[in-house]
Amino acid sequence: MAAANGQVISAHFEGVADGANSVIRRAEHIRDQLEAFHRSVEEFVTNNWKGDANEAFADMQRTWNTHVAQLNATLSGAGTLVRTGNAELQAKDIALAGLF
Predict the structure, then answer these.
(1) Residue 90 to residues 22, 84, 93, 100: CA-CA distances in angstroms?
(2) Which of 22, 39, 70, 90 could anchor a disulfide with 13, C-beta 3.0 to 4.6 Å?
(3) What residue spans define the domains of the chain?
(4) What is the C-alpha to C-alpha distance for residues 39 and 58, in angstroms, rounded to an integer?
(5) Is the pTM of this model over 0.85?
């Protein structure tokens, strides 16, 4: 589609969709890595720390879990928003092209 000044306006919907899916996959990979790391730390603490240290870790663990969940929700949500916005833009592009 040519703009008023002769420049071409275009969108690469497939590339944007691939990028959005990549963000979602990376978010899942990061989540999995953080969970694996946390399991290792948790195992160490369980086997080596007793009493107050173990209780303090349990408190920290709750905060950790909350932060990991928030990070994953943010990253996955960003990917989902990009994917949804891309699909909506593509549908609008198709609808508008039908006017010509």
Answers:
(1) 19, 10, 5, 16
(2) 90
(3) 28-97
(4) 13
(5) no
